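My current task is to audit a protein record that another person submitted. Thanks in advance; the entry in question is below:
***
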Amino acid sequence: MAFYRDVIGLSTVDNGADHGHPGVAFLSVGEPYNLVTLSTWHSANGTPAPGGRSGLDHFALLYPNRAALLRAVRRLVDRNQPPTFAADGGAVVGVRVPDPDGITVELYDQRPRATWHTPGGRLVLRTESFDPLELLRGPDEFPTVVVWEDRP
């Protein structure tokens, strides 16, 4: 739980240990509560799935705005766990960081819906990677919205 609280910056909404239910905690990106439930009820002292086996690969946390995402990225850098990947997906901008169990956590925010389509109505989809530290320049400087021309 420390990684998600102290490094990712989630708020503790409730801790099961406080109610006689150790091994579970409820965390949030912000209000209104977007809950993340961490539980070790079935996996305490277990080992990760072997390579090539099913298991949780990653999950994503939607931040309420770019400023909140930037605070999270700054927290990662300040704690010497900078994001390992960042991408501009058109409608979203996000970064990825592995948690202590090797699960990839994606932190992202959405651009205003009005920018999600080209003037011709096509959804702007792309995966343009960039240096995650570029986000630290500020919410209004990077990445900029690029309107693509319509293509068949």
Remarks:
- The mean pLDDT is 79.
- The first strand starts at residue 11 and ends at 15.
- The chain has two helices and eight strands.
